[in-house]
Amino acid sequence: MMSSEKSNARILRGECFCRAVGYTVADAFDYALNCHCSGCRRATGSAFKPFAGIARDRLRLVKGDHDLLIYGEAPSETAPHDVHCKRCGSLLWSVVREGAFVHVAMGTLVDPPSIRPRAHIFIGSKAPWHVITDDLPQYVGHVTEPELQGKTLS
Hints:
Layout: H1 3-7, E1 11-15, E2 22-26, E3 31-35, H2 38-44, E4 49-55, E5 59-63, E6 68-72, E7 81-85, E8 91-96, E9 101-105, E10 120-121, H3 145-148
Parallel strand pairs: 3-10
Antiparallel strand pairs: 1-2, 2-5, 3-4, 4-9, 6-7, 7-8, 8-9
């Protein structure tokens, strides 16, 4: 996607379960993955966390700034942390990569994104009771973009 196409991207809405917190994000995600690490499983209460990564400045909080619960390292703009609704507990996004990116929890998007997860990561720590049944590539640990190049979206 060209830079001008990303700047003209459709804007998606997202919200927590109780709708106290709302956000918008450009439909210009750089990647999307299914993370099976134990941290993502505990944060979501699910077998894995489908997330889409985008530059942090492409996400805007539009409602509920007083209803945010920040969980993670000592509060700072660059430390990794998760952003939840403090009322219902929904995980909305994670701040990663020295604060430059967010990983949007795809289940909180109200509008459907154009991207789909392209791989399963951290399957080395996946829940033993979960069976992956799709044909997406699987990685024991993290994955880098060069490893995903050439793979088609599912």
